Amino acid sequence: MKNFPVRVLKASFSLLPERLKNQLRKQYGLKAWYGERLRRSSLAYEVPSLRKIRKLLTDNLLNQKEFLCRKEAVLDQYSAKINVLIVGDGNVAATLKSLQCIDPVINTVWVDKHCVPGDCDSRDDFVVRAYYEDDARFTTKTLVIEAGIQLHQQLALPILMLPARGDLCYFDSISVNDKERLSEYRFLPDWNPDLQISSAYINEAVLLNTPMSLQFIDRFVTHGIAATMAYIYLHSTQLNITHQPFVLSVRKSLALSDMNRLSQELSGNTTIVNVTPGLLKVQWPIKNQPLVSLIIPTFNGKDLVKMCIESILQKTTYLNYEILLIDNNSDDPEALAYFSELELHPKIRLLRYPHPFNYSAINNFAVKHAQGEVIGLINNDIEVITPEWLEYMVGHAIREDIGCVGAKLLYPDDRIQHAGVVLGYGGGAGHAHKYFPRYHPGYMNRLIATQNYSAVTAACLLVKKSIYEGVGGLDEENLEVAFNDVDFCLRVLETGVRNLYCAEAELYHHESVSRGLDITVEKAARFNRELTYLQSKWKKYIDHDPAYNPNLTLKRENFAIKGPREYR
């Protein structure tokens, strides 16, 4: 009942006329107060009940069916036949039975020779043959599906009739309970190699469209879908992997054997820290132990800076780093005296930036003085939790195909402040899983799984100095305070590398203590200008964030399914 007053206030606000709502939204002090009360309640992240999920999912599937039927009407009826290859040691008979819904487009169904049911060849609906290694007859589009997975009876056919996209394509799925009732949805992001490594999120069915992808047929048979997708990332970066956000299959639960095969695939490239069903924790090697320059801007804030720097010095296990403390016009005598003491420490340099506050300009100034190969942007209100935080983050930052690396940041009350940035939240950008409890696994384990996001927050961000300088650093002119990190990450993303959320690196973020909340009219106006700039420049990512899914809501940061009003 402790959240009852907040619930009443929230419900009352929803009943107000829109004009009055807009007037209240301009009361910035009241808005900040309400936001703080909401954050402290469980309502801030509020995962929908199973009953509501089933309602939203049922509506979503109907919406998908209507959309696909409109598409089907303009396609050539059953113009392209496909092969189906069933792999793995699951329930082959169940998968075969479900294939009847796509009988019009099936050429031949192949089953691993070790798993062929005795009555396969006598089926009336389609031909079933045993697959033997190095079979040369796979020259046409092929659906590879794990044994035990069943196709969605209403959606599978129109989905497979869609024009081929990329060399390899994968799809969304749902799961049902023992009573065949909807119980879970898996609305996936676009190709996300690091999420594949950490959670094997593609593990049910893939469509091979070209000879380049068909060459992996044998590996799909011997290693399964999850491990083969990781292998493709590690060994065939030229393969164009695409995603169709439609429900093709009804899923199984991920077996530990799937994760074990995945860990074997990765063991030559990473250190396997832990393997559990649905989650693989790995650490990437750090060659040559590069110097990391940790940049901490501050205005006064002696207590914050002391907490931040002492936690770094006392807890961090990675030792090759320097700290650049950037004093931006501090005038508190105690703070100035403390900063002078810090300057005597062999790992710390004190730089002074005697200009008006501009977060972007301060960091750009500091990077010019940084000696490290890797840059770390660190807020002065950060406090280390995980001693190995820097080892994990540096291991990712020095990978050739990785750009910006962000951490899991927590409020002091152990709720999530940052676990990756999603474009489109609130019309701009927001934090995935914001306000979730620290140990919550999140949607599809995405709170505890290291993965790629389009952007991460600069409150704790690592990036190679060469990349930082290559894209021109943070935007000092248009984004002085807000969204400069999002803009920076997207410019890095556009160079062809991926940004990453490192779930293993946990730190506290005493958010915005150093500069206060944007509750004044002037600050709110600046925020709105910077939001408008972001919306104009990065519309394509706000309209479609590849790390998200168009079936998920942008109204809240909890990965819930869209509500009825959100469909266009």
Question: Briefly, what is this?
Answer:
The chain is built from 18 helices and 23 strands.
Give a quick account of the main beta sheet: strands, pairing sense, barrel closure: 10 strands, mixed
Strand content: 15-25%
CATH class of the largest domain: Alpha Beta
Task: Indicate the radius of gyration in whole angstroms.
Answer: 26 Å
Counting copies of identical and different chains, the oligomeric state is single chain
- Unreliable stretches: none
Our measurement of the CA-to-CA distance between the termini, rounded to an integer number of angstroms, reads 37 Å
> What percent of residues adopt helix (DSSP H or I)?
25-40%
Question: What is the second-level CATH architecture of the largest domain?
Answer: Alpha-Beta Complex
Shape descriptor reads: globular
Annotation, overall tally of beta strands = 23
Q: What is the residue-mean pLDDT, rounded to a whole number?
A: 89
User: Structural class per helix/strand content?
Assistant: alpha/beta
Tell me the CATH topology of the largest domain: Spore Coat Polysaccharide Biosynthesis Protein SpsA, Chain A
Question: What is the domain total for the residues?
Answer: 3
The DSSP helix count reads 18
